[in-house]
Amino acid sequence: MSVRGRILNAKGDLSEAEAKVADYILKHQQQVLKMTIKQLAKASNSSPASVIRLTKRLDIDSFTTLRILLSSDLTKNHSDPKDNADITKNEQLSSIKEKLLSSALQSIRETTDQVNEDEVDHLVSAIIHSQRLFIFGIGASYLAVENISQKWNRIGYPTVADNDLNALLPKVINAGKNDVLWIISNSGESPEVLLAAQTAKEKGVKVASLTRFGNNSLAKLSDISVHTSQPMESPNRIAATNSLLAQFMLIDIIFYFFVSKSFDKSAKALDASHRVVRDYKQSLLK
Amino acid sequence: MSVRGRILNAKGDLSEAEAKVADYILKHQQQVLKMTIKQLAKASNSSPASVIRLTKRLDIDSFTTLRILLSSDLTKNHSDPKDNADITKNEQLSSIKEKLLSSALQSIRETTDQVNEDEVDHLVSAIIHSQRLFIFGIGASYLAVENISQKWNRIGYPTVADNDLNALLPKVINAGKNDVLWIISNSGESPEVLLAAQTAKEKGVKVASLTRFGNNSLAKLSDISVHTSQPMESPNRIAATNSLLAQFMLIDIIFYFFVSKSFDKSAKALDASHRVVRDYKQSLLK
DNA sequence: CTAAAATTGAATTTTTATTTCAAAGGTAAA
DNA sequence: TTTACCTTTGAAATAAAAATTCAATTTTAG
């Protein structure tokens, strides 16, 4: 995993001094490459000991190794300077393409990079052992809800998808321990989704969430939480777009992991689904 | 210049001991990354002093820098050989991630690459000048329909989104020359979408389509057609997934081109939409 | 309010990088 | 052949950097 991914993943567990170092690294990756521990400690207002503690916490064996990883990351992600540029008036199509492509690639790469394997594992197990799977999300996140719903339906795990709290709550009230409610929310702060989560918890329904990275109320409330990468500082307009792609990427990863884990049942079902849809279309043509 | 390049360039000027170190580095780049000077000296049958003399001769300021350059070189030249592998039983999450990532990046890159600028231009003009925009798609493509609908709604162009022919046809029957029907279909061959296209054409409604690349009936029927890249020969299971990401990427490109072209109206509306949703959430919290 | 645990950076120790330097070997002119 | 003068080399010394220890301090839990 990349240094950036490691840092974002560990963010919650870092002490204050460690977090200062981590922030400095995120913001000055290029410079850190050429720094010694002492310099980095000074630049980030901490101490050499904290720098070392951070590297250990990131599961990197030495500061030297950290620099090597960082160098590799920077080469890999070497993204054009087009970064972070917002869309402007009367722009050329080619310029828009470049901007969107570079930020899309970055989002997708980073999201994949920082997938938390344990959480995905929990989520997949929870779904496999659940009786029913409820999925909830509003606004743009409802697209992710639909996507999840369609995918799991295709492998023989019927789901209940909602984007209306009034429709969801009665179902949740009557749900129980063997059910899972998976909530999608980019910010993790919409009152609607928080209410849904709270209600589910009170009924003993297992709550999973998919949010963007970083502290948010929904993730805190959830039993299981997975994350998309937080776009660096990409402008408002593009950010919304990237979060969708990132959500879809993450869903794909989770879905295919699920398929792989329940292969005998799921893969067969998936192939059968493709076949039945094709046959249906054939019959319509006659 | 890469470390390898530097060494080959300097080859003639190296002393015997320096050459031994240089050879060792060329043959064991990966290991050298993790070695100290002393270890490298021993492994190459020379001395620490010779190692340093070599780095200076290569015009590299320190051994630490040499390692950083080497790390970058290795990353740059490491190409991903994970093409076309399907998901199998009980696979590691990391392996699934790699497969999905590499095929996702490819789809998105290719789709962006082969955007037909003229067609996008036509489509954008048609929408700008239209009275009403109908969007239609079934199955997984309905996610793209919803995505388009939400995006244009946000900039003050209300849309009519459907995934049910029974709901769509009555609307199309009563539509006219100034309306646009945009149909999303990966294959471009579903009977439902072909029927929708035919009906619209008969009523003089302009038909746009978004399909995968290559000959397909829907594209032929359409007045305007845009394409996602045709996945090379990626296996069935992953292909479905990639086509969604590619559709979304293409939609983003078209959308932001649209925003850029109608900037004064759209950008303002977009920002206002973000604001009004935020305010609404604030009010719910009180 | 107190005891235990966690956090922190100064100081120290350990390790690594770099420089120095004397020995060894080579070369060319006398 | 001798001698003076390069060049190369690695052992040893030095300098620098990395990693650890530990006591002081803050935070947390009871």
TrEMBL record, chains A, B:
UniProt xrefs under InterPro entries: Homeodomain-like_sf, HTH_RpiR, RpiR-like, RpiR-like_SIS, SIS_dom, SIS_dom_sf, WH-like_DNA-bd_sf
Keyword Transport listed: no
SUPFAM superfamilies named among the record's database cross-references: Homeodomain-like, SIS domain
HTH rpiR-type domain location: 1-77
Keywords assigned: DNA-binding, Membrane, Transcription, Transcription regulation, Transmembrane, Transmembrane helix
Domain SIS: 123-268
Recorded superkingdom: Bacteria
Pfam families linked to this entry: HTH_6, SIS
Membrane-crossing residue ranges in chain numbering: 238-259
Biological-process GO terms, alphabetical: carbohydrate derivative metabolic process
Any one GO molecular function term: DNA binding
Name of protein: Transcriptional regulator
